[in-house]
């Protein structure tokens, strides 16, 4: 009898072994992941459904990167406009004296 016991077969009268805890943790993690994907509407047993989710995540990642670059660009434009304005004011003040 070389196989690992199922959770239902664990003798509740003895302390849990490390292997028992690992098996329980794995089963809980699998169930949690299945539930999460179910809530997201992804059939984890369908390769097409998983690939669609992967494509959506890649698209969202690229959109986030573009947004970050857009904020940096907008900030640099504002800084450039402010510096140009200050230089223009300084030159105008210098010429008027």
Number of strands: 0
What's the N-to-C terminus distance?
100 Å
Count of DSSP helices?
2
Strand content: under 5%
Radius of gyration: 30 Å
Mean pLDDT: 87
Q: What share of residues is helical?
A: over 70%
Order of helices and strands: HH
Q: Summarize the main sheet.
A: none
Structural class: mainly alpha
The coarse silhouette is elongated
Uncertain spans: none
Descriptive overview:
This protein has 97 residues and is an all-alpha fold. Helices cover 75% and strands 0% of the residues. It is built from two helices and no strands. It has helices at residues 18-40, 47-96. The chain is elongated. The mean pLDDT is 87.
Q: What tags apply to this protein structure?
A:
single chain; 97 residues; mainly alpha; 75% helix
Topology:
Elements: H1 18-40, H2 47-96
Could you give a quick summary of the protein structure above?
With 97 residues, the protein is mainly alpha-helical. Helix content is 75%, strand content 0%. It is elongated and about 95 Å long.
């Amino acid at each position: 009898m070389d196989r690992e016991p199922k959770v239902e077969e664990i003798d509740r009268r003895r302390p849990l072994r490390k292997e028992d805890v690992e098996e329980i943790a794995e089963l809980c993690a699998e169930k949690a992941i299945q539930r999460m994907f179910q809530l997201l509407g992804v059939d984890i047993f369908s390769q097409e459904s998983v690939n669609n989710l992967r494509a959506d995540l890649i698209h969202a990642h690229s959109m986030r990167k573009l947004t970050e670059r857009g904020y940096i660009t907008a900030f640099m434009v504002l800084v450039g406009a402010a510096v140009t304005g200050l230089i223009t004011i300084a030159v105008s003040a210098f010429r008027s004296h």
